[in-house]
Amino acid sequence: MADCLSHLTLSPSQKTMASLTGAASSRLLPAASRARIHLSSPSSASSSRSPLSLSSSSSYSISPLKCLRSSPFVPHFFLNQKRSSMSTVAAASDPVQLKSAREDIKELLKSKFCHPILVRLGWHDAGTYNKNIEEWPKRGGADGSIRFEVELKHGANAGLVNALNLLQPIKDKYSGVTYADLFQLASATAIEEAGGPKIPMKYGRVDVSAPEDCPEEGRLPSAGPPKPADHLREVFYRMGLNDQEIVALSGAHTLGRSRPDRSGWGKPETKYTKSGPGAPGGQSWTAEWLKFDNSYFTDIKERRDEDLLVLPTDAVIFEDSSFKVYAEKYAADQEAFFKDYAEAHAKLSNLGAKFDPPQGIVLDGVAGEKFVAAN
Ligand code: HEM
Q1: Is 123 in the same domain as 152?
Q2: pLDDT at residue 123 above 50?
Q3: What is the mean pLDDT of residues 198-205?
Q4: Residue 352 counted as domain residue
Q5: Would 2 be classed as within a structural domain?
Q6: What CATH number has the domain bearing residue 131?
Q7: Are 198 and 115 members of one domain?
Q8: Which one, of 58, 5, 56, 221, lies nearest residue 124 by Cα?
């Protein structure tokens, strides 16, 4: 579900290979790699195409993923992928197409319940931004680079291939919408549709065109670093974000689940996730993990249920004296959380982006307009 795996099927060649290699191999494969994946090779395909990846290496990845990297199944699996029919990257996005794409995303959300993974995809495209590098796209950020295999296979991005596969049909339909915009549009729409605040978004992000433009691995945060507060500051300050924004954005974990076969964190299933919706399993931060509200903060504060996840980087927002001010505020006041979250999310979505036109394209009203609750 959240990652909406239920719609992803093995191609006949993958089924054959799975049966040849036996159950042991298929158990080693993370869910993402059992999915049907479009693949195109950077050398043979247009540079705008999106070669997708399966394996993962991460500061917090676990042994099954390491097994996967050495599995003889993997090269064969890649060789048997269908080539994608991805459209050419547009210089920037078209407002009419952006609005239609948004309607398609709403339909996708209704049928697949994939709000969380779409939010995570947008964040991981944008969160590579380095404010100390001026040059685009070397500085990273919301530039669509996560569609390339080289970046998608970064350990922190384990499982996000599923999000990309969900959005690809929409990308194929709207050649006038860039990947960079589509990822941010999908994320903001997912927040709004889950009951969160209206995000003051703008569009017109230009896509990077080649895998060589992808940032190096290691720019996204780890969940269990030795000093979580220092680590969060190091990573988010590099993006130009502050303590309040770190805490507000952490509240996105009100949605979704962590899966041991992806990040290595969380339980395989809990009473909240064992029946889905969608592909069951994983451990959520909140009981109603498809509803955007302030329960992430109240649940961490109360630690009321062992079935709910608290990563070391989540726990620290109530331990560090500066973070705690905001965490307490958001636990007590959902409206304050929504207001700060909406602003922080919009800022995150713009990090590193090159806009065409430079001021961006606003779909509803004025970007940066006063906060309004979406639902
Ligand atoms: C503060 C540092 C952060 C760390 C260390 C972190 C870490 C993680 C980890 C380990 C997972 C589980 C992934 C999996 O196993 O599939 C996850 C999921 C998720 N993260 Fe974060 N995250 C951080 C910040 C953020 C931010 C800023 C956002 C969005 C604004 C976000 C949105 C999400 C969402 C929505 C999921 C659920 C994905 C799903 O259900 O498929 N995270 N995060």
Answers
A1: yes
A2: yes
A3: 98
A4: no
A5: no
A6: 1.10.520.10
A7: yes
A8: 221
2: its two tokens: 């959240």
Q: Is residue 135 included in any domain, yes or no?
A: yes
User: In this structure, are residues 293 and 287 in contact, taking their beta carbons and an 8 Å threshold?
Assistant: no
Domain hosting 240: range is 228-344
Compute the distance from residue 357 Cα to the ligand 1 centre, in Å.
31
What's the full length of the chain, in residues?
375
- For 375, residues 6+ apart whose C-beta sits below 8 A from its C-beta are 192, 195
The residues with which 373 forms a beta bridge, in sequence order, are: 197
Pocket test of ligand 1: the residue of 58, 120, 246, 351 to mutate, having most ligand atoms within 8 Å of its CB, is 120
Structural contact between residues 253 and 194, judged by C-beta atoms closer than 8 angstroms: no
Residues within 6 Å of ligand 1 by CB: 2-3, 116-117, 119-120, 123, 159, 221, 223, 232, 249-250, 252-253, 255-259, 262-263, 265, 311, 313
pLDDT band, very low/low/confident/very high, at 91 (cuts 50, 70, 90): low
Q: Specify the pTM.
A: 0.81
Count of domains forming the chain: 2
Higher pLDDT, 20 or 114: 114
Do 184 and 112 lie in one domain? The reply is: yes
Atom of ligand 1 nearest to the CA of 259: 15
Q: Which bin fits 204, alpha (ψ -120 to 50), beta or left (φ > 0)? A: left
Residue 206 sits in the same domain as residue 282: no
Residue 294 domain flag? yes
Q: Is the omega angle on the peptide bond into residue 277 within 30 degrees of 0, that is, cis?
A: yes
Q: What is the enclosing helix (H) or strand (E) of 78?
A: helix 73-79
Interacting residues of 308 by C-beta distance below 8 A, sequence separation 6+: 270, 272, 283, 284, 285, 286, 287, 299
